[in-house]
Structure formats: C-alpha cells, structure tokens
Amino acid sequence: MVLQLVRRTAVFAVSLVVASVVAFAFMSVLPGDPARVALGVNATEEAVAATRAAFGTDRPLVVQYLDWVGGLPVGDFGRSYVTAVDIGPQIVDRLLVTTWLVLSGMAVALVVAVPLGVLAAMRHRSAGGTVISAFSQVGVAVPSFLAGILLVTVFAVRLGWLPSGGWVPPAQDPVEFLRRLVLPALALGLVQGAVLTRYIRSAVLDVLREDYLRTARSKGLTPGRALVRHGLRNAAIPVVTVLGLQLATLLVGAVVVERVFVIPGLGSLLLDGVANRDLLLVQGVVIVIVLAVLVVNFLVDVAYTVLDPRLRRAT
Amino acid sequence: MTRTPAALVVGGAIVGIVVAAALLSFVWTPYDAVQVDPGTRLAPPGFAHWLGTDTFGRDVVSQLLVGARTTLFVGVVAVGLAGVVGTPIGILAAMGPPWLGELVMRTNDLVLAFPALLLAIMFGAVYGPSTLTAMVAIGIATVPSFARLARGGALQVLATEYVLAARSAGRPRTAIAVRHVLPNIAGLLLVQASVSFAIAVLAEAALSFLGFGTRPPTPSWGRMLQEAQQFLYLKPELALWPGLAIAIAVLGFNLLGDGLRDRFDPRLADRR
Amino acid sequence: MNVLTVEGLDVGTADLQLVSDVSFTLVAGERVGLIGESGSGKSLTALAMLGLLPDGVRAQGSVRLAGIDHDLVGAPERRMAALRGDAMTMVFQEPMSALNPSMRVGDQVAEVMLLHGTQADRRAARAAAVEVLDSVHLPDPERLARAYPHQLSGGQRQRVMIAIALANGPSVLLADEPTTALDVTVQAQVLDLILSGVAERDAALLFITHDLAVVATVCERVLVMYGGRIVESGPVKEVFTNPHHPYTQGLLAASDMAGTGGRLRTIPGSVPAAGRFPDGCVFRTRCPNAADDCTVAPAWTESDGGGYACHHPVAAPEVPVLQVRERAVPDLPGRRPPPSSRSGTCSAPTAAGARRCGSRGHRCTRWAACRSTSRPGSGSGWSVSPGPASRR
C-alpha cells in the first residue's frame, strides 16, 4: 500500500511538472513582446529594454520558467505585465470564491443524486424509477449556464425572491452571502446532480445484482438495510471516480456560471486576464485549475485504495 | 433482444431533426439570419417572425437554423479530429510495447487535466477566439476518451483466439489492426462519437456564451443565449429558444449514444 | 416431527409458471436431496421458501416452518427477514461472489449473530465469529476473521458461508449446489462440514444438486424435479436402484452411476426454456415412454416411502441399477477429526481418493466407489479431516 502511494505521488508530481511546462510554453509562444505591449507603440528602444529587464523577459525562457515555477509553491505567481499587480494574492482571493461555488455545487449534486440514484435503482422496473431516469437524462442535456439563466429568470426576474447575481463575502454578511450563493450553487449542482444520478443508479443496479447482496438478505437483512450495509460502500467505489471527474467539470462549469451571475471568482479572473492580454495572469490561473484537477485525481486514487480492500495489497 | 431500443429511435430522430435544420439553413431561412433590422427590434412571436426577433431585429428562427449549422460543424470537426487522432494512438498503445501503452495512458491523464473549456480559453488567449480554436481545443480535449476506448477495445480483441491465430500465422501487425481490431471496436467508437458529440455541443455553447467560440455575426446558440441574458428582465423567452435548442441537441446525441450502446453491447441493455 | 412442510408451492411470473404444485416435508435431522437438470426449478423452490425470489417472480401455496406461527409464503418482508439466517438459512453455489468484498470476514459472520440477537454486542459477536470460523475448520481463525474475502480461497470462502449459515443453529439448512464451484479436492471436505454441521444441530438439510453421486452419499431421501414439478421421490436407495419415472432413469443413466461402461448416455432433447414446458406430463416431449394419454397430467402414485407421477412408469429392473451403501452418521458434536500430518499432501484417505478419481473424468461414480473402500472397517461411509495445513 505504501509502495502504491509512493508510485501515485510520483505520477502526480511528474504530471504537475509537465503541466506547468505546458502552461508556461503555451503563453510564451505568443508573438509580441509584453514590454512593448505595456509601453505602447511610441516607446523608445531604451524604455522597452528597461521594461524588459524589469519584467525579466530579457532572460532565456528556461530561466524565466524556473523563476516562475520556483515561486509557485510559496504563492508567488509573478507580477502582472499589464496591471503591475501581484498575481498571487488575486488568485488566492478568487480561488476562495470559486471553492465556495464548487463545494456548494457538489453538495447540491450529492443531496439530489444519492437518494434519487439509489431510489431509481431500487425501483428501476417501476414508473418512479423511469421518471427519475428521464429527469436525469434531461438534466444532463442542460448546460449549467443555461440552468443559471433559467433560475435567474424564475427566481430573480419573475418571483424576485433572490438576487440575480453578485457576490458578498461570508465574513461581511453571512445572510446575503447565502442568498447570493443559492442560485449559482443550484445551477451547478442540479446539472451535476443529474449526471451523478445516472452513475449512482447504474452503480447501485450493479451492486443489487451481486451475490453478496443476496447473501446479506439470506442472513435476515431487509432489502433496504442490505443495500445500506453491504451495497453502498461497494457502489461508492465507481462513484468516487465519477465524483473526481465531476469536481473538475464543476470547476470548469464555475468559470461559465461566474459569468452568468457576475461572481468575482477564478473564472472571471481568467476571462479578464484573456481580455486584457494579461498572459502571466492567465498562465497562473491555468496552472491553479490544472493543479486542482490533478490533486482531485490523486485523492480519488487514494480514496479508491481505502474503499476497496482488494487494491490494498502491497505490490 | 432484437427490438430496437427506444433511445435509439428517439435519439436518432432528434439528431435527424438537428441535421435537417442545419442542412435547410443552407438553402432557406425565413429571413437573413444576420440581417440587422432596427425597425423590428424585440418583436414578439407572430406570423411574420414565428419566434420573434432579438434586440438587433434579427429573426430568431433563422438564427436558430444557422446556429444548428455552427453547432454541427464544430462538433463534426472536433469529434472527427479526436477520433482520427485518438483511435490509432489507442490501437498503437495496445499493440505496441508495454512502455508505449503506459506512456499513452499517462499522457492521456495529463491531457484530461486540461478541460476542453480551459484549453479553448488558452487557445483563444493566444490565437484570438474563433470557431477554429474552439474546434481544435474541444478536439484535443476529446482525444483521450477515444484513445482510452480504442486501447481497451483493442486489448480485448487482441486476446481473442482468432487474433492469436492470425498473429501466430505471422500476419503483419498493421493487417491485424485494420482487419480485426478496427472492425471489432467500430461499434464502441461510434457510441463514443455520439456521446462526445453531445459534450462538444455543450462545450461549443459554453464557449460562444463566453465569447470564445464563433465570432459575430455568425449565429451560434451559445452567443444567442449570452445576448439574451442582457434582456432577461425585458424578454426572458429570448433565452429560452437557444437554450431549448442546445438542450434538445445534447439530449438527442446522448440518447443516440445510449441506444447505440444497447445495440452494440446487449449486456448493458438493462442498466439505464 | 416435521420441521418444514411445503404444500402446493407454485412459483411464477405474471405470464410464466416456473414451479408447480411442489409438496414435501423435512423431518428434523433429515437430509433430503433435490435433484434435476438446470432449469428444472430447484433453486427457485429454495428461494421461494426463503422469500428471496427475484423481482417480478411470485410464489403461491404454503410453506410452514416449525415454531413459526405464520405461513412463509406471502409473509411480510419483516417477518421473513427475522427468520432468514436464523431458523432457516441457505448456502449458495458461488462462494467467490457470495461474500461482501469490502467487509472483513469476521464481521460478516458476526453480523448474522448480532442481527438475530444470538450475541448481545459487537465484541461478543466478534469473539463468537472466531469460534464459528474455528468450528468450520478454518486455519488460524483469529487472523482469518480480520481478512477480506479476496484473501481466501474458494473452499475457504464456502466454509465461511457455511459458518454464517450455521451460526444461529438453524432448523432448516438449504444448500444450493454448495460444492459445484469448488475444486474436486475441496468438495469432500465442504460436504463433510455441512453434514457434521446439520448433524450437530439436528437441522434438516435440503441439498440441491445435479450431482447424483453426492446425493447418494449425502442424503437419505431424494426429490427428483423436472419442469418445475416433483416427478419422483423416495428413499435414495429406492429411487436410485429402482426408479419409476423415465426421467429419473434418464438422469441415472446420464450420470453413468449405473456403471454401464462404454459410452455415456444422455436424455434426448434439452430442457425447455423456463416456463415453456408442455402441458400434461412435463417430460412427455423427451420421454421414451410417451403416449397419447401423457397430454393429461399424471396423478401421483405412492410407492415405497415415496411416489412418482407417470402414466408409463419404468418396469422394475432385474438387476438393481445402482448399489447404494448405507452411510453412517457423520462426525458428531465434539468429535474432532483425526490430527493430520503437516508434511502429507493429503492426510484424509477420502480426499486422496477423490483427487485420484477426480483426474479421471467420471469423478462422481468412481468417487462413490472410492469412498466405500477408503476406510475399511470404519463403518462410516466417509469422513474427512481438514486439509493438511489446517489445525493448530
């Protein structure tokens, strides 16, 4: 088990390094000189050279890369060529907002999907199960930003119950924070919940067919208790993988949903960076998102080993 | 089970309608989809404009028809690219030496860490947003699913007795790949293509919504939504039509994929 | 005293009749075989008795268990759950998949005792589980209780299943082909475990199998099933030496128990799909004796200690079809199997015999033969000690 963990950690570390190279290379192939862009067309050669030296873009690419990567672990993402603001603190601020969104979205998805998925599996021959399946099939087809727009239309425009967007930090006003979190969390979570419902249903259906569930019932457990005590843990094994993939999807979904609800998260920062041609900022946000995805994948691998004793053998 | 799954029929019908709408838009639309007409801004649905007009006075039905074209175009190119690149990579990974297979799978995982939308935004940042960057980004992000599927399927086919027989008879590797492996995994690939298409439609819509896909004035469902969002208080139904179009198209491709899967893999038939 | 009485049991889906009018009784301590080809309704009968039929399959008729004041057919799930694993238990065919892969073996055994209040708390149940595992001759039960199923062999897992089935001292044990999926060398040991287990508890055993040789050595009475009906029943010796129903005769011939030598005979045709049996006599489409009157369902004819349902029963053979030896009561409570040598490959003569025979194809027949000679003078049909590396 320890060996496996070491192996996984190594894979994770290598992936991270390669990903950072990709993100860096991507933004560096760009034609155009950040210094010249920053100073405008009328700048003198001397001024451009001075700015280049200030930015550090006169150094070889390898040095620039190492400098950039070296700063990442301590949260130093460099200073923007465009706005001359430190990127690290911005990313941390925005990441916090996006984390709220993603986690609340995941919570909504789980609250919706676990009971519905299990119910759909247990009643898969009856009308109830079919209705749930149909609901999830339709839900899968609705992108989260569309769900967001529909939610805004109903709950903000028509009913006026909730604000149509914006963000208030929880420390500033917890009630307002929640009021503004509800719709984006629902937009993200309902759609992911629909996807998750399908996976949970199929995982539970698989487990329901297992011999050991029949054994559990032959021991004297009622169908429901047999499923809870013997089925869910085994059904969780495939679902955990999906959950990991979904966290990545949610992160990307948040980028779009932030635009719908005018939320100052990581996605808005990324889009602003692109709009301002602030490449160092884009590079920083990209590596943070990729890092998040890789971390989640890593955790999924670990969770797998914990959940499935068959994988625990020290090989 | 010989009967055609209901999902296949419904999904096929929906996809058929979307394709028909896209084809129709080449020869006929009620109005010029990009014609701005200040005189008919935000017209309500009626006889002249079945679903009304948008804020620039453009006919919604015409835009939806041309938008179907954009969506399908992006989907076909992206999924085609992913299939053409990913399938040989997967088969190669299955037939080649073990280290190659390992390398391909690791690279796959790495590409998967860059979601389609993120890739497209990066491409857009570097080369400027366009239909092309959207298609290529979605395509690249879809390559791993084809490579993984092709590798898994190929490994199964390679383990069958008739392939072992062909190999021991000394048939060249390429011949085995083309004659035995490819035909046997074609069904699975078709299922994957349909599912990937649904994802591509979603990604394209999201990108256009963010302004990273098809550029104006070419109509696209995602941008129609984005434009409609600004008028939610005034005319919320403007968001409904492109939203419905996206959802229906995605539903169609998903159902088609499910139906095809039931067809090609009867063991899974009962699972949905 | 009858511990189990089954009367007119029908099992079917909305449009298919899968089991029809099955009636039999089990006496305490009695070992009864239920035989027939695959698809004859043996397993469904057992599942119906336990109330574990698959979705959409329903039972009618009556199943009464001694000490239970209600009919098991149509009883509410809660009441059935209360007696499952307690008064009536079951061992399934496939030990590899019958245990929960993500739960420790000991906990799975402990659960059944906790569930029915045999043990008061988790700690007591855990300790009891180790004892039960020890009683099914599993090596190092302390350690094994903490293991996960994938760390056990098929034979060991089946022992765990038997431990679960016997933990609460059931009055009826249903064993559905418990040895079919096991290695030949392990089969005898597992069989012996079941036999000593039911003997210890004076439980009735319903042993489902298609292996006639096993029935011949394990059971006292046999029920022959075909097409969802019991077509013949009686003492094993009677039925196997003097079968009345052509189907029973066919089964015996096909199993080569008669030792005809030469080619293996089979029953012509194949078992129809579930619920697609002909009306009248269910066997008439494959029966050599079939005549016009077979379109009417044959009535039950009583014979020595049993009976059969056939219009044209097989004539009594001049030479008995099969010699069945009497077997003695298996290991009794408290009696430990003989200590085994650690070095030997297989200390038990029976197991050795079975292995030797097993390599020859017709294992069933020869197996039975081996057994009768394996322990001369012991008086008991066969008795098996655990494998070589087992006891502490």
Q: Can you give a write-up of this model?
A:
The complex is a heterotrimer of chains A (315), B (272) and C (392). Chain A is an all-alpha fold and 315 residues long. Chain A is built from 12 helices and no strands. Chain B is mainly alpha-helical and 272 residues long. Helix content of chain B is 72%, strand content 0%. Chain B is built from 9 helices and no strands. Chain B is elongated. The model of chain B is unreliable at 266-272 (pLDDT under 50). Chain C has 392 residues and is an alpha/beta fold. Chain C contains 13 helices and 11 strands. The A-C interface holds A 125, 210-212, 214-223, 229-230, 233-234, 237, 307-310 and C 50, 52, 55-56, 77-78, 81-86, 89-90, 92, 94, 97-103, 111-112, 115-116, 148, 150, 161, 164.
Number of helices of chain B: 9
Q: Whole-number average pLDDT of chain A?
A: 84
| Radius of gyration of CA atoms of chain B, rounded to a whole number | 22 Å
The largest sheet of chain B, given as strand count, sense and whether it forms a barrel, is: none
In quaternary terms, these chains amount to heterotrimer
**Unreliable residue stretches of chain A:** none
How far apart are the termini of chain A?
7 Å
Mean pLDDT of chain B equals 82
Q: How many individual β-strands of chain A?
A: 0
Structural class of chain A: mainly alpha
Low-confidence stretches of chain B: 266-272
Shape, per Cα inertia axes of chain A:
globular
What percent of residues of chain A adopt helix (DSSP H or I)? over 70%
Number of E strands of chain B? 0
Q: Summarize the amount of helix of chain B as a percent range.
A: over 70%
Q: What is the C-alpha radius of gyration of chain A, as a whole number of Å?
A: 24 Å
Strand content of chain A: under 5%
Task: Assess the beta-strand content of chain B as a share of residues.
Answer: under 5%
Distance between the termini of chain B: 15 Å
